[in-house]
Write a structure and sequence with these properties.
- This protein is mainly β.
- The chain has two domains: 99 residues, Sandwich (Immunoglobulin-like), CATH 2.60.40; 86 residues, Cupredoxins -  blue copper proteins (Immunoglobulin-like).
- Helix content is 13%, strand content 45%.
- The chain is built from two helices and 16 strands.
- The strands form four sheets. A five-stranded mixed beta sheet has the order 5-11-10-7-8, covered by helices on one side. Strands 12-2-14-15 form a four-stranded antiparallel beta sheet, with no helix packed on it.
- The relative contact order is 0.25.
Length: 216
């Protein structure tokens, strides 16, 4: 009994120690005009290897409603999968010509697709052969932490261990040749703030066209 209590106490101590050395990173991203940059992917990778286990989702769902992919941008870990659902009133022909992942299939209303596995890191632009206005992006992360900003340009990345990290950002409207350099970030305490400014232009659809031409 004593050994069981000792083991439980040791486990609780380890959990408390882990919690004490992990922080929440509050992310704020704006464009060059100071407006919130929604749908920005922010990744965190450690300066010292090996990296911790991935905290990025292993499975994401992309829905289709009113001839729109929802959400516009999703993040999945390398080796993870995406499932497409169709809650629209019509059939869609989902496809990607991206080098990260190429596929094409039909999905009728009310159906759920087979999982699409993304085994290469990078960004896959998704479209519909029937409705040219439809676009979505799957960001496949090999970094252990990643998040997508909301309508206010904010995101939170939780349980990041203390230490030296570098943050990188991607957005479907980034100007060609304007991919921002990684930003050094020192994580400590319970909360760390990260502010980024991106040079954006065009539309998400324009970003998709550039990616399919392999010049993004």
């Amino acid at each position: 009994m004593f050994h069981k209590l000792l083991s439980a106490a040791a486990g609780a101590f380890a959990l408390a120690a882990t919690s004490a050395t992990a922080a929440t990173v509050d992310v704020a991203v704006t464009d060059a005009n100071g407006k919130p940059a929604a749908n920005t992917v922010v990744t965190l990778a450690p300066d010292v290897q090996p990296a911790p286990a991935s905290h990025v989702a292993a499975r994401v769902v992309i829905d289709q409603q009113h001839e729109t992919f929802l959400p516009l941008v999703v993040v999945v870990r390398k080796g993870g999968e995406a499932v497409f659902t169709n809650n629209d009133t019509t059939m869609h022909q989902v496809y990607s010509f991206s080098s990260v992942k190429q596929f094409q299939f039909e999905i009728d209303r009310g159906q759920v697709s087979k999982p699409v596995v993304f085994d290469k890191s990078g960004v896959a632009a998704i479209g519909c052969n029937i409705h040219d206005n439809m676009v979505a992006y799957v960001f496949v992360a090999d970094a252990p932490f990643a998040a997508v900003t909301d309508a206010l340009g904010h995101a939170q990345i939780r349980d990041v261990p203390d230490g030296a990290w570098h943050a990188a950002a991607w957005h479907p409207q980034l100007r060609i040749g304007k991919q921002p350099a990684p930003v050094a970030l020192a994580v400590s305490g319970q909360q760390t703030k990260l502010s980024l400014t991106l040079a954006l232009s065009g539309t998400p659809m324009a970003g998709m066209s550039r990616m399919h031409k392999s010049d993004y």
